[in-house]
Amino acid sequence: QIATPMPVTPDVQSILNDVFGYHEFRDGQRDVIQAALSGKDSLVLLPTGGGKSLCYQVPALALSGLTVVVSPLISLMQDQVAQLQALGVAAEFINNSVAREDQVDIYRRLHDGEIKLLYVAPEKVLQREFIERLHHLPLSLFAIDEAHCVSHWGHDFRPHYCQLKQLKHAFPNVPMMALTATADTATRRDIVHQLALQNPFIYTGSFDRPNIRYTIEEKFKPMAQLMRYLRTQQGQSGIIYCTSRKRVDEVAEKLSEAGFNVAAYHAGLSNEERQFVQSGFSRDDIHIVVATVAFGMGINKPNVRFVLHYDIPKSVEAYYQETGRAGRDGLAAEAIMYFDPADIGRVRRFFEDIEDEHRRRVEEQRFSAMAAFAEAQTCRRQILLNYFSEYQRNPCGNCDICLNPPKRFDGTLVAQQALSCVYRAEQRFGFGYIVDVLRGANTSRIRDNQHHALSTYGIGKNHSSEYWLSVLRQLVHHGLLEQDITQGATSRLTEASRAVLRDEYTLELAEPRLQAVHVYEDKLA
Ligand code: ADP
Ligand code: ZN
């Protein structure tokens, strides 16, 4: 009852030229297409913008039957179908937004063999009635776009996707192509397993995005840092990611007050509002979108010049995906993250509320890799690509570490000053307060506590507060200080700090990196 795929137009090259108007296949496309034409399952791992769609669109046209594309996002489906129709390709989509009578019409044309590519939402494709219809059609290929959604390991797990292996069971002879831009090895393995792919052909493209410059800036006064950066970006398109809706609204409001052309986007907004922001952004009416992770998949804007993370993302995949929305046009773009080491503890505590034990462990592990990435002092791109099993021998020359290598210095004296200040302030204050004492700030709180009389009061006024904050954070990393988060992040000395205070060894610290962006400008000039 099921048509085995039979190439009727083996000349995929002419499809590429005549239908799509391109001259050559990109790396991997031809092999993947060949696998589909010969009836093999496949797994295609290509970064965003790598050209995944063509991998199933060309076989869809080369094979005699119907290609069913499962895609999780309505806007994505609509875009692709509109593009294909503009090229004269018989493509349609079916999801719950399509009116009943239009669906009936599509079904009629499907049965008449007038449609080559049908895009469907996963929940639709799994309906028994729909599967029943498919049984009466000559199927060439299933393409599962954004296939990482099947995986609990993936950053965007969707329960409907999990059941897609039913398709493989219902149509064991129809080849299935799974495509994703997510690359970590655990997710890859899981996709093959979850979709029940049979001995698939696997193609892994390079995940490097050489035009994106990665920068991690220590977070001090993030709003001020943000404004300073945005002023260098006059009128350019960018996305600012924050972890909570509340933060999104706050940041968007402040930027808007400061005169930036900005809109907020998160799942708490109505469909219309979100649609408005998304299309305004793609038309360049809106320059900057402040968003939660809800803003993402399906944004196909080529000229996003910067993606900025106001908070640390939950996984390296999420970071890679989000930063990957910058520079799709291949021109220089920036990925900047503001990083406060204390956020690591905050995010970890958030995971404690996850009830499902397995899920919690997965999240924790994924976040640990992200935290390690944020804290690392070696080439960002090397770490990122190594994480995706793409070993890089040389540092990239286009990240903050490569452009502005961290300098080490003998931090024993400043460490002693900071540690004794914590000690004399009776170990019951947070970093902000300690920094104020060190710098001799004239605040009522300090006077009330009589701390202007401490010997460490004003001892560090020759350094900025950012400098001291960075030193204090490094002391935490070195295990010399600890913060009690249950007590308003009050800081305490650890046992290990004694040796530093007694001058028993030299403590190397990293030179605080205060104005990364400006340093680059000098270097590049
Ligand atoms: P992905 O789905 O992997 O993010 P797309 O399929 O949207 O990527 O392709 C990204 C862009 O590259 C599109 O504009 C597409 O038309 C273009 N493209 C894909 N393959 C080729 C090719 N062989 N030659 C030229 N352009 C291509
Ligand atoms: Zn680098």
From TrEMBL:
One biological process term in Gene Ontology: DNA replication
Xref: Pfam families: DEAD, Helicase_C, HRDC, RecQ_Zn_bind, RQC
Domain Helicase ATP-binding stretches: 33-201
Catalysed transformations (reactions): Couples ATP hydrolysis with the unwinding of duplex DNA by translocating in the 3'-5' direction
Enzyme Commission numbers on file: 5.6.2.4
InterPro entries named among the record's database cross-references: DEAD/DEAH_box_helicase_dom, DNA_helicase_ATP-dep_RecQ, DNA_helicase_ATP-dep_RecQ_bac, Helicase_ATP-bd, Helicase_C-like, HRDC-like_sf, HRDC_dom, HRDC_dom_sf
Keyword DNA damage included in the entry's annotation: yes
Record domain Helicase C-terminal: where: 222-374
GO molecular function, one term: metal ion binding
Cofactor(s) demanded: Mg(2+); Zn(2+)
Enzyme class: isomerase
Protein keywords: ATP-binding, DNA damage, DNA recombination, DNA repair, DNA-binding, Helicase, Hydrolase, Isomerase, Metal-binding, Nucleotide-binding, Zinc
Keyword Isomerase: yes
GO cellular component terms listed in the entry, alphabetical order: bacterial nucleoid; cytoplasm; replisome
CDD domains noted in UniProt: DEXHc_RecQ, SF2_C_RecQ
Family per record: Belongs to the helicase family. RecQ subfamily.
Protein known as: DNA helicase RecQ
Organism: Pseudoalteromonas xiamenensis
Upper classification of the organism: Bacteria, Pseudomonadati, Pseudomonadota, Gammaproteobacteria, Alteromonadales
